[in-house]
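# step 3/5: fold
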Amino acid sequence: MGGFMQQTMRRWQGALTTLPSVRDAIECVLAIILFGMFAWWIGGSQAWIGEPVRLGLVALLLPFLAPSFFEEMIFRAALLPRAEEMPIAPWGPAIFALILFTAAHPLNAWLFLPAARGLFTDPMFLFTAAMLGAVATVLYLRSQTIWTPIIFHGAIVAGWKLAGAPRYLFADLS
């Protein structure tokens, strides 16, 4: 167990201290735009988007901490190998991390957000969450910094909040 924890700590340190390049930033912005359009289309067809809301700064920035920072640190930085660890393609760990990331959503609803159980167990929502996880994985593997997937993930969740995500999903911080 000590080896796993040491490896995780090294991965976290590398992921947090590696800054995004200009290319990484451009790819992150493009991913936000393209995935945002995809999620808007899916969310609109599935009624996950209601009336747009006005949010305070704290409520708008909170998604960058929870869920984004915590989920990306677990499902990307801790579980995916760094470049110096990759003698071969990282697809095995990437698929494993993606399955765990997707499964964490219904588990989270069952344990902490009972009002979200219907949404977080909806197959189309889980598909969309898996696609978000896949894009975050690619951003992380290409950039080797956790900041691009955190910004991507946070921007998508913040955008969903602004677009009218179900209010029961978020603390009343507006």
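# step 4/5: annotate
Residues 115 and 168 are 7 Å apart (CA to CA).
# step 5/5: archive (pending)
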